[in-house]
Every structure is written in structure tokens, then in C-alpha cells.
Write a structure and sequence with these properties.
By secondary structure, the chain is of the alpha/beta class. The chain has 15 helices and twelve strands. Helix 2 (about 35-40) packs across helix 13, helix 6 crosses helix 7 (about 180-195) and helix 12 runs antiparallel to helix 13 (about 305-325).
């Protein structure tokens, strides 16, 4: 008899608060999601705490570890080392890795955490210039879109750094790194602005009506973690379908395959159907497939209800529907949950428990949304316990 298949789908940041523009509904509630709603009617629905109380920031890095069954209080060392792994950057035991966003600023305010979702091609010469002029003992390494990396040999990891998506429209001076290494980190921010603001690259971007990519913002620092392999922990061979380096990096540390998917961008314009096809293909050989879609989170950071509704509906149509069909007839199980809340009203992450559905199951709801999940009365306090429940037959 073939092995049972298990699929987890994570629409990043899809959980939200009720919006006046949606007649008091959340995007998950308002979106046209017949396949997610069918899962809810036939599955086990509830809430799960993916962010431990001890976590200072409710980020995807911590939440993803929880969802994959790794206790963040034990295994989380920082976001950037996970992204470094995905990028093929080997960290020495004393290396500090920092995520470096390429942001737009007017010198006083942080205007856009993504420099207008700059393309990787447009970002590459900017990061190369920063490495040449500002690197010194440190390396700046091109990532994807606005998401880049700084490796600092022997660098500090105890500084307080703030994610730029938390401070859009706020004063740069009020949100600078504090603590160990703050002088160097602050100089990177201000020196990068001086280097980039009037550079010809940004003059051209302004002529084209695009935000200037004129400041580097370091955050999410840490050293390389050590994760036990997913297969050793759960007894299942797995594949991760994801575009963003954070999720792909966790996959690498956990010993999970993470093939690159053409058309998967980590943005609102990603090819949802390509991800669905890749997940179906991965199921041919793998026991476990983890599908991550960044688009709802990006839409929330933009403050775009339209883009968030579109992303949720595309996930329902091109990812949930074909995978539900593939697993029907006792051939497998499906788990769907956001990693965290990203309310459009605040344009950043929040730590409330998120809705989940395990299909098939026995704690039903009429629809898959935050309110219906809360009404079932099922609440899992430790995020890592959810996968244990999911794998239990």
C-alpha cells in the first residue's frame, strides 16, 4: 500500500482583522474560497498559537519553525542565518548574518520597506556597489528583490534591530539599531543613504516614477542554528515549495528539499499555478510537502485589500483545489494555516492565534476564517503540537 501523503499550505500573513471596507469581514472571510470552505466543513478547525509568548517579535521565522514542529525557544537564532542557508552562504561559527532590506527613504522617514518591490536585476548593481564601498570586513550579498544579506565575521548579534516593514512612514532616527555594534550598524544605514541617494541608478528610478532604492536597513541578525533533520524527527521525507529565502533556508537546515520554482517570486505577482503544479509533482516521491505563499503578507504590508483578496483567491483556486483533489479518498491529509496575522490596518505582523484546518477531520466550521475557527472552541497553545496532531492517524 502506498505511503499516506501529507501537505501543509501556509498562506503567509493571511489572517487579518475585520475591515470596514469589507463590511466588517476579514479578507479570509470576504474572499471567494469555495475549496478552503469545503475543507472547513469536512475538517478539524481551530486556532493555534504559532508565536510563543517569549518571542519579542511575531515574525515568519519563528512561526515557520513552530509549524514545522521545531520549538523556536530552542532552535531560533535569528532570521538572517536561515536566509543565508537558502542563498548558499556558508556561515562560520562566529559569523553574524544580518538581513539587509533595500528601502526607500527621504533621509528622515523610512518611506517604503521594499523600495517599491524592486526587482532582483535592479537591486544587484546597488548591492554590489554597497559591498565595494561599504563592505570592508563585512560582505553584502544580493538576495531576491529587496531582501539581501550582510555577513559580519565576528559580528555582534545582541543589538536590538527593528524590521523595516514595522516602521514605514516613521522616523529613521527613532528606530535605529541599539546596543552591541550599534555604531557600525547605524553607519551602514546613513552611509548607504549618502552613497545611493543621488547615484545615477536612483536618478533613473525617479525619472521612471519608481521609489529610490537608497538605504540599507540591517535587522534579523543571528548565527547559524542547528536543527535536527525533519526526516529523523518525523519519519517522513519532505519537499518545501517556497520562493523566499527564509523558508528555503529552514528547509535546508532541516534536510528538506527546496527546488526553485520558475515564476515563484515571493511577491503578489507570483505564479500561484506554478506552485500548485510543483507541489503535485513533489508528491510523487515525497511523503510530506510544505507549500509557502508569501503574497498575502506582501499585500498586507502594502496596505492593499485588493491584492490580499486576489492572493487568497488564487491560493484557493490553484493550490488548495488541486491538492485537495489529489489527496481525496484516504490518500492523504491536508493542513492549511497562516503563519501569523498581518492586519492591513497596521501593515505589520501581530501575535494572535491563527486559524487552521486539518482535512479530513471532525471539528467542522461553515467557512475557513478567523471567527469561525475561534467559534469551534479548539485552541492549540503550542504551535509545535499542531504538526504532531496532523501526523496522528
Amino acid at each position: 500500500m502506498p505511503n499516506k501523503k501529507y501537505v501543509v499550505i501556509v498562506p503567509d500573513g493571511a489572517a487579518d482583522l475585520p475591515l470596514v471596507e469589507l463590511d466588517g469581514r476579514t479578507p479570509l472571510h470576504a474572499a471567494n474560497t469555495p475549496h478552503l470552505d469545503a475543507l472547513a466543513r469536512e475538517g478539524t478547525v481551530g486556532l493555534v498559537h504559532t508565536i510563543p509568548d517569549a518571542a519579542e517579535v511575531p515574525g515568519s521565522d519563528i512561526a515557520m519553525l513552530s509549524i514545522l514542529g521545531y520549538d523556536p525557544t530552542q532552535y531560533f537564532t535569528g532570521r538572517a542565518p536561515l536566509e543565508a542557508a537558502s542563498m548558499g552562504v556558508e556561515l562560520g561559527p562566529d559569523d553574524a548574518a544580518f538581513r539587509c532590506n533595500l528601502v526607500a527613504s527621504d533621509g528622515e522617514l523610512l518611506k517604503d520597506y521594499s523600495a517599491g518591490h524592486i526587482s532582483t536585476e535592479a537591486a544587484r548593481p546597488i548591492i554590489q556597489l554597497a559591498d565595494e564601498k561599504l563592505g570592508g570586513a563585512r560582505r553584502f550579498i544580493t538576495g531576491i528583490s529587496y531582501r539581501h544579506l550582510m555577513v559580519w565575521p565576528g559580528g555582534p548579534v545582541a543589538a536590538l534591530t527593528i524590521p523595516p516593514h514595522d516602521i514605514q512612514g516613521k522616523a529613521v532616527a527613532d528606530n535605529l539599531p541599539r546596543g552591541e555594534g550599534e555604531a557600525v550598524l547605524r553607519s551602514i544605514i546613513y552611509d548607504s543613504f549618502e552613497l545611493l541617494d543621488n547615484h545615477e541608478i536612483n536618478k533613473q528610478r525617479r525619472r521612471e516614477g519608481k521609489p529610490a532604492a537608497n538605504m540599507l536597513w540591517p535587522w534579523g541578525q543571528g548565527r547559524a542554528p542547528q536543527l535536527p533533520s525533519f526526516e529523523a524527527k518525523w519519519g517522513k521525507k519532505g519537499v518545501v515549495i517556497a520562493a523566499v529565502d527564509l523558508v528555503r533556508g529552514i528547509a535546508k537546515y532541516a534536510g528538506l528539499d527546496a527546488p526553485k520554482i520558475a515564476g515563484a517570486t515571493g511577491g503578489v505577482e507570483t505564479d500561484f499555478a506554478a506552485k500548485g503544479r510543483a507541489a503535485l509533482q513533489a508528491l510523487e516521491a515525497a511523503d510530506f510537502v510544505f507549500v509557502h505563499i508569501e503574497a498575502p503578507d506582501e499585500a498586507s504590508h502594502e496596505g492593499s485589500i485588493k491584492h490580499k483578496l486576489h492572493a487568497i483567491e488564487e491560493i484557493d483556486k490553484y493550490i488548495v483545489a488541486p491538492l485537495k483533489q489529489r489527496l481525496a479518498g484516504n490518500r492523504g491529509k491536508l493542513l492549511v494555516l497562516p503563519d501569523h496575522y498581518t492586519p492591513i490596518s497596521i501593515r505589520t505582523h501581530a501575535r494572535m492565534p491563527v486559524p487552521f484546518v486539518i482535512w479530513p477531520g471532525d471539528t467542522h466550521a461553515e467557512e475557513f476564517c478567523e471567527t469561525r475557527a475561534g467559534n469551534t472552541g479548539l485552541e492549540i497553545k503550542e504551535g509545535g503540537r499542531l504538526l504532531e496532531r496532523f501526523f496522528a492517524d
